[in-house]
Amino acid sequence: MSSRDIIIESLTVGPIQTNVYVVGCAETGEGVIVDAGGDPEGLLGLADEHDLKITKILQTHAHIDHVAAIPEIKEATGAPIYLHPDDMMLWQAAPQQGQMFGIPVEQLPSPDKELFDGQTIAIGKLSAEVIFLPGHSPGSVGFHIAEHSVILSGDVLFAGSMGRVDLPGSDRNQMRASLERISGLPDDTRVLSGHGPATSIGREKQLNPFLKQDW
After folding, report:
1. Domain residue spans in the chain?
2. Ranges for the Metallo-beta-lactamase domain (predicted)?
3. Span 73-114, pLDDT tens digits
4. pLDDT of residue 3 exceeding 60
5. Pairwise CA distance, residues 188 & 170, whole Å
């Protein structure tokens, strides 16, 4: 997806088919990586294709399939890593997570910046609002770029489904509240999630059983 102002590119990586993103400001050439879950060369290649300098590494959460490429991306770019503090236990346990899922990863470098609800993240002249959406993990967040009607939702909302709530640190009640919150965004908001195809808030309000009824 691209327009005069915004660049959004994605790759699907790893054994769990995780969507990872490069988001950039076309005017300033500043870019971010959202969820460095794998294929660091591919992510950096996407940035290079659009002449983007990666200035931030933004994490929707700290499950292994979203962080496995962090060491390489950090080393290559020197960009600060942003993570919600409630996911620090998962972050620190990345090597153990990797053993469980067959994704080898070394100990991750420490995050540089804390994310919090309502925070504004600058991507050149673009602005992404941090929306705290716990439930799939304790510190899950989404990045809402309202001007371009898009949210990077991590593993909270999927096309026709939602993120798992049977993992350590997951919470069904928090997920219900987070789904209610995200469903309050405008219907035309494009949802770019951590797994599966893109969708929209309006489509999910019509078709997604987890937004339509109690579960």
Report:
1. 6-212
2. 17-195
3. 999 999 999 999 999 999 999 999 988 888 888 899 999 999
4. no
5. 28
Q: Which amino acid is at 71?
A: P
Tokens of 7: 């660049």
Q: Containing H/E element for 44?
A: helix 40-49
Instruction: Find, among 84, 75, 70, the residue nearest to 138 by Cα.
Output: 84
Residue 30 bridge partners (DSSP): 53
Fold of 6-212: Metallo-beta-lactamase; Chain A (3.60.15)
H-helix or E-strand containing 154? strand 150-154
Structure tokens at 61: 């959460």
**Per-residue pLDDT tens over the stretch 165-208:** 999 899 999 999 999 999 999 999 999 999 999 999 999 999 99
Contacts of 189 (CB under 8 A, 6+ apart): 144, 149, 150, 151, 200, 201, 202
Mean pLDDT of the chain: 95
CA distance 127 to 170: 29
CB contact at 8 A, 24 and 52 = yes
Instruction: Tell me the pLDDT band of 2, cut-offs 50, 70 and 90.
Output: very low
In angstroms, what CA-CA distances link 35 with 8, 39, 71, 170, 212? 13, 11, 12, 19, 28
Q: Do 147 and 126 touch, CB atoms closer than 8 A?
A: yes
Characterize the bridge pairing of strands 18-25 and 30-34. antiparallel
Q: C-alpha angle with apex 8: 24 to 28, nearest 5 degrees? A: 20
